[in-house]
Amino acid sequence: MSPPGTLFRSTGKGALPEDLTERREKRVYKIKEKVSLAHDVHSMIVEAPYIAKKALPGQFVILRYGEAGERIPLTIADSDPDDGTITLVFQEVGKSTMVLGGLSAGDSLDDVVGPLGVPSHIEKLGMVVCIGGGIGIAPVHPVARALKEAGNRVVSILGSRTKDLLIMEEEMVKASTEVLLCTDDGSYGKKGFVTTVLEELIEKGEPIDQVVAIGPVPMMEAVSKLTKPYAIKTLVSLNPIMVDGTGMCGACRVTVGGETKFVCVDGPDFDGHLVDFNELRLRQRMYLKEEREAIEAITYVGA
Ligand code: FAD
Ligand code: FES
Ligand code: MG
């Protein structure tokens, strides 16, 4: 055993233990492929063999680019253990995701930590409706696929503001038994929100055993409000601000059924009928001023 104070530091040779030094040198999270899926939405295939081997639907990573880079949580949209890669799909919404959007195949990320979070619960229930709103289609994809593989009839409802923003339709067709599309402006699929389509399914008397909804907070809240009077179990994947991702900083605190939960270790999936969405919304906006300043700063430098 190492003497006190030497853990992770000196080995007596004034260096890191040999295997650790070697691992450090080899630890490169190379971007193997990067494609644009829609305006400001990208898909990135990243070399991360240890994560690819263990990742399960519903889990996420926290990555960092650059020495002083922010930690960015992103859901593992897909993984290929044989290829040693994971797929991340992200939208440019602020400084860090804009920087990420500027990277190309061949570039490397500094850290990718994961898989984090509790995997989604997958079991044969009968009929499951999987709802993906906007960028939420990417995280719902592995869940829909696993539910279908478990023998469920998976009806997926995909929604976006307009046709050009609707991503991963082809992948979702493969992952589901049936796909229903909608856009806010009616440019593709049904005109309306995902709740419009879900309400129609409920009113038709479809035997829905569970709903899984992933997307913006107002969408997940609206879906949960709709299903509650029908007592249809509804799982939502929460996305509060995260820092460490291991339950230690408290940044991702949410209230579920009156209890405090940390999304990074207790979630991200929770019963939508019990989530305090109002608190989540307020906490997500905590650093709005700093986030705006960060964007203005890069715009100024780039001008
Ligand atoms: P900023 O301008 O800093 O922030 C814009 C907004 O993003 C903020 O108002 C805040 O609500 C949110 N945000 C900012 N920092 C964080 C943070 N550290 N953690 C969480 N939210 C933050 N986005 C995707 O596009 N694809 C995904 O697959 C995806 N999966 C996620 C999974 C989890 C478990 C969580 C918690 C978040 C996920 N997100 C995903 C959201 C993504 O992490 C944020 O959009 C990103 O961190 C914003 O960083 P920014 O600097 O570009 O934006
Ligand atoms: Fe720190 Fe969850 S991100 S406790
Ligand atoms: Mg940021």
Overall description:
The chain has 303 residues and is of the alpha/beta class. The chain folds into two domains: 28-116, Elongation Factor Tu (Ef-tu), domain 3; 127-284, 3-Layer(aba) Sandwich (Rossmann fold), CATH 3.40.50. Helix content is 30%, strand content 30%. The protein has helices spanning 18-26, 49-54, 95-101, 137-149, 169-175, 194-203, 217-227, 263-266, 277-284, 288-302; strands spanning 29-38, 41-47, 60-64, 72-80, 85-91, 108-109, 111-116, 127-133, 153-160, 178-183, 190-191, 210-214, 233-237, 253-256, 259-262, 269-271. It has a seven-stranded antiparallel sheet. It has a seven-stranded mixed sheet with strand order 11-10-9-8-12-13-16, sandwiched between helices. Strands 14-15 form a two-stranded antiparallel ribbon. Strand 14 (253-256) and strand 15 form a beta hairpin. Helix 4 (137-149) runs parallel beside helix 5 and helix 6 (194-203) packs parallel to helix 7. The relative contact order is 0.11. The model is unreliable at 1-25 (pLDDT under 50).
Side-by-side strand order of the widest sheet: 6-1-2-5-4-3-7
Structural classification: alpha/beta
Largest sheet descriptor = 7 strands, antiparallel
Gyration radius from CA atoms, angstroms: 21 Å
H and E order: HEEHEEEHEEEHEHEEHEHEEEHEHH
Shape: globular
Number of domains: 2
Low-confidence parts: 1-25
User: Would you count the extended β strands for me?
Assistant: 16
- Percent strand: 25-35%
Q: Can you tell me the CATH superfamily of the largest domain?
A: Nucleotide-binding domain of ferredoxin-NADP reductase (FNR) module
* Broad CATH class of the largest domain: Alpha Beta
Q: Which fold name fills CATH's third level, the topology of the largest domain?
A: Rossmann fold
Helix content: 25-40%
Distance between the termini: 56 Å
Please state the average pLDDT score.
Answer: 90
What ligand species are in this complex?
flavin-adenine dinucleotide, FE2/S2 (inorganic) cluster, magnesium ion
Query: Tally the helices: what do you get?
Result: 10
The CATH architecture of the largest domain is 3-Layer(aba) Sandwich
